[in-house]
Amino acid sequence: MTITRIPHLPSGSNFQSLFERSAVETGFLLTVEDGVGTERLLRHCGTKNAPNPPLLIGLLRHKLRISRGAPEPAPPEVVLAGRQVTYMISGEGSRSGVLAMHPVPLPGRVLVASLLGATLIGMRKLQKAPLLRDSGQIHTVVVLDVSPPPDHDAT
To answer: What's the total number of domains in the chain?
Structure first.
């Protein structure tokens, strides 16, 4: 058996650093407020209601590491806590909800303290990302639209 090495293909820790560098370049943007809110969820066990807290904690920490700071005010196409996000998961129809930092489920909310919410925060309209499911499967999520919450007062 002959093993052929593909040139220019990173391996080991080089591959991981390439992935992280690529993720930063293509982009997740967090506002200071969302970064602090995410850290607060981690510090105060806001992930304890998740089906798999250790997995969620790892994802949130990873998101904090690889995200860039969003300009202030954040662009309207960025998914932030308090904004309405319409998204589609591979193999499913579109859904929407307001991204929330709450540690417990609320109707019409997508919690940052969930694998879906942790994936969505910092994404931009039309951006795709891998979505790790509680079952261990990996799907794709795409952000279709971002807007102020429905009860947002424009004044």
So the answer is: 1
